[in-house]
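Dear colleagues,

I hope this message finds you well. In preparation for our joint manuscript, I am sending the Surfeit locus protein 4 (Oncorhynchus mykiss) sequence together with its predicted structure, so that both groups work from identical material. I would be grateful if you could confirm receipt.
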Amino acid sequence: MSLNIPSSRASRVFLRMTKQYLPHLARLCLISTFLEDGIRMWFQWNEQKDYIEATWGCGYFLATCFVLLNLTGQLGGCVLILSRNFVQYACFGLFGVIALQTVAYSILWDIKFLMRNLALGGGLLLLLAESRSEGKSMFAGVPSMGESSPKQYMQLGGRVLLVLMFMTLLHFDPSFFSILQNMVGTALIILVAIGFKTKLAALTLVIWLLAINVYFNAFWTVPAYKPMHDFLKYDFFQTTSVIGGLLLVVALGPGGVSMDEKKKEW
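The corresponding structure tokens are as follows:
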């Protein structure tokens, strides 16, 4: 117990110091993969169009519509989220982009990439929950019957989906470091999923994931003409988006459906 007090105090100090800036940083990280992918659609317009046309045999017009929809949907959604305008519509649009790409690029049959896409969806759910909070803040003086159920379950669903990213990072080999990493990582994702010591666990996962991302997905060290450059870049920005989702958990807390919230009733 004595070891937990300093860590909890440190996390509270961190939250007080970053309260004003953390939500903005979280949103920027969260939309980073959509922003990068939208820009990539612009610069690789012909390559993306030719891939869709060849893979699905859908013809020039539908392939062009697919690329255009991805480009405008992602860049437009990012602009709306960063400007705090029509955030809910922007989130639904980005949900649609995730679903469209999951089918178009056959991600549905690749469990690792599917779990990462679901983790992205979890981040968007948390962003939706945040937008509901901001909407209600305009009526702060009006008596309330408590936190709305949709927001609670958005936060729960967002937390559960976010931890899918970490399940793709587990390595099943007999080395001591790998076993230790798996044990610590599993404990932390369970804490976030059930909402116990949530902010501290999410902040620890942010630091861990940030270190892994910079070390393993350093796309800037690989020449741009090599295929590995694009692969690492894709991984880097997807991971950065999940970090953004975790930062929203740190900023907003776990929500009503969590052990942290239930402890207040006990």
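For the figure legend, we might mention the following. Residues 111-137 form the longest helix (27 residues). Residues 137-147 have pLDDT under 50 and may be disordered.

With kind regards,
E.M.
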